[in-house]
Design a protein that fits this description.
The protein is built from two helices and no strands.
Length: about 60
């Protein structure tokens, strides 16, 4: 994934395999976080709709 001589390799002195491992871990954390945000929004919207449905109307 990381090209030889790229700025992450030369600037930070990392091996290409280390950069790939770091990228994959960061990508997994990002995807999990995004999924939790989407789930949180969906769950809060669902509970708000349930409250409106059960609320007595005057």
């Amino acid at each position: 994934m990381c090209m030889q001589g790229g700025w992450l390799n030369t600037g930070l002195g990392w091996q290409a395999s280390s950069v790939d491992l770091f990228y994959n871990i960061a990508d997994a954390i990002n995807k999990i976080g995004f999924g939790l945000v989407v789930y949180g929004i969906a769950a809060s919207g669902k509970s708000a709709a349930a409250v409106r449905e059960l609320a007595p109307t005057a």
